[in-house]
Amino acid sequence: MSKRVNISEIESVGYKAMLGLEAYLQNISLTPIQKELVKIRASQINGCAYCLDMHTKDALKYGETTQRIFVLEGWRETHLFSNDEKVLLAMTEEITQISKKGLSDKTYEKAQKYFTENQIAQIIMAIVTINAWNRIAVSTHLQIPN
């Protein structure tokens, strides 16, 4: 892959704004594992190897199991994820694939059973943020560090 623009250097103000979103996400009520599940699942859908590398490592540091990471793409077919995690993952998929339909009423109603309005807003912001990072990394051919 050819080298592409380095947004953090060329457009540092925009990049710093993205870092501001990351700083905000550090203080939301989702657990570190919940945040990493969102980041991994969105990155799988978007094909972002850089983010997958980073967030699977982070998830393991937070205590996530390799088994759950390995089967994350098939979360609907397993008992390894709790009901609230399944709602979180459904939200991640629907918002990431917004052109298909977006966040459905059915999923939103399920989310209201497990999360407060504030938490739902935080989840949406977490999903939006990782999707932005995925698009930056894929568009600029960001490489996994050695």
Write the layout of secondary structure elements.
Layout: H1 7-10, H2 12-25, H3 32-46, H4 49-61, H5 66-70, H6 83-96, H7 105-114, H8 117-139
Helix pairs in contact: 2-8, 3-4, 3-6, 3-8, 6-7, 6-8
Quick structural summary:
The chain is mainly α. The protein has eight helices and no strands.
How would you describe the overall organization of this protein?
- The protein is mostly helical.
- The protein has one domain: AhpD-like (Up-down Bundle), CATH 1.20.1290.10.
- It has eight helices and no strands.
- Helix 3 (32-46) crosses helix 8 (117-139) and helix 6 (83-96) packs antiparallel against helix 7.
- The protein starts with 6 loop residues before the first helix and ends in a 7-residue tail after the last helix.
Within CATH, the superfamily carries the name: AhpD-like
Question: Mean pLDDT, nearest integer?
Answer: 96
Class computed from helices, strands and strand pairing: mainly alpha
**N-to-C order of helices and strands:** HHHHHHHH
